[in-house]
Amino acid sequence: MKKTILFNLLLALVMVATPVFAASPILKQAAAIGDAALNSGDGAVIKLGFVESSAKPANPFGEKVFEKKSDGHTLIVTTGTKFSQKFCELYIPDGTEAEYQAIRAELVQLNNTEGVIYDHPVKGKTYLGEIWSDKEKTDNGNTADLKLSETELSFLFIQYSAVAFQQTQGRTGIIIELMK
């Protein structure tokens, strides 16, 4: 009996001390897409089942757009270069505020810090946005060794909007932007 209690206590301590990565399916997708796009290029995004689209990128820094359906969501990936650095963006048009909050909570846990509020909501428009940036790679970073899965990042930005407006380039849903 004592061995069982001791074992369960030890197991609980290991579980608490071990960081868990990407419990949410959307963040798992973002990690895989970020790893592919930022470390291996657009061909690796296609290997994840995305198809290159002829759509014009909504993100002004975007160069290519890829799409696929996964877990009931349409996923749109934009790749390109922003401020001389590779970036990719995962856009989920039907992403919800609850999914945004789950992703946000997970990022707070992974980075041991709150994100920096990007912008405040405009009256009558539900908008949420936070940024995590690496202290070594950016002038005013808030996170040491910023990573998503194994991919080192300089910048990670999440947004949610219930209505289309300028801040999100006219898009609703969830946007997750990663920059190397």
Helix and strand arrangement:
Layout: H1 2-17, H2 25-39, H3 42-47, E1 51-53, E2 62-70, E3 73-82, E4 85-92, H4 97-111, E5 116-117, E6 127-133, E7 147-148, E8 151-152, E9 155-161, E10 173-179
Question: What attributes does this structure have?
Answer:
single chain; 180 residues; alpha+beta; 8-stranded antiparallel β-sheet; two-stranded antiparallel sheet; 10 strands; 32% strand
Short description:
By secondary structure, the chain is of the alpha+beta class. Helices cover 29% and strands 32% of the residues. The strands form two sheets. Strands 1-2-3-4-10-9-6-5 form an eight-stranded antiparallel sheet. The protein has a two-stranded antiparallel sheet with strand order 7-8.
Please describe what this structure looks like.
- With 180 residues, the protein is of the alpha+beta class.
- The protein contains four helices and ten strands.
- The strands form two sheets. The chain has an eight-stranded antiparallel beta sheet.
- The N and C termini lie far apart (51 Å).
- Residues 2-22 have low confidence and may be disordered.
- Beta strand %: 25-35%
> Number of DSSP strands?
10
Quaternary class: single chain
Distance between the termini: 51 Å
Helix content: 25-40%
Mean pLDDT: 85
List low-pLDDT spans: 2-22
The largest pleated sheet is described as: 8 strands, antiparallel
Write down the secondary-structure element order: HHHEEEEHEEEEEE
Task: Report the C-alpha radius of gyration, rounded.
Answer: 18 Å
Structural class: alpha+beta
Q: Can you count the helices? A: 4
Shape: globular
The largest beta-sheet arranges its strands as 1-2-3-4-10-9-6-5
